[in-house]
Amino acid sequence: MSTSVDLLVRGSAKIIAHYRWLLQRARDNGERAAYERRIVEEERLVQRLLQSMPGTIQS
């Protein structure tokens, strides 16, 4: 992977971890749902980025 893609993937992993931390501390169902949506979206974007890279192995 290129350095910029590595940076984006690591950044997304940190964002996902932070959303999971916030999800554990959510005060109501609305907040929980919002964090869950953001986690799913961020994971989708990472997968899309990795799939767009030529020569990458998909798990």
Give the SSE map.
Elements: H1 3-24, H2 29-52
Helix fraction, binned, reads over 70%
Beta-strand content estimate: under 5%
Shape: elongated
Radius of gyration: 14 Å
Q: What's the number of extended β-strand segments?
A: 0
What's the story with the biggest beta sheet? none
The pLDDT mean sits at 91
Protein name: Transposase
Describe this structure as you would to a colleague.
The chain has 59 residues and is mainly α. The chain has one domain. The protein is 78% helix and 0% strand. It contains 2 helices and no strands. The chain has helices spanning 3-24, 29-52. The longest helix has 24 residues, at 29-52. The radius of gyration is 14 Å and the shape is elongated.
What would you say about this model in short?
This protein has helices at 3-24, 29-52. The protein is mainly alpha-helical and 59 residues long.
Based on the model shown, name its key terms.
59 residues; mainly alpha; 2 helices; elongated; Transposase
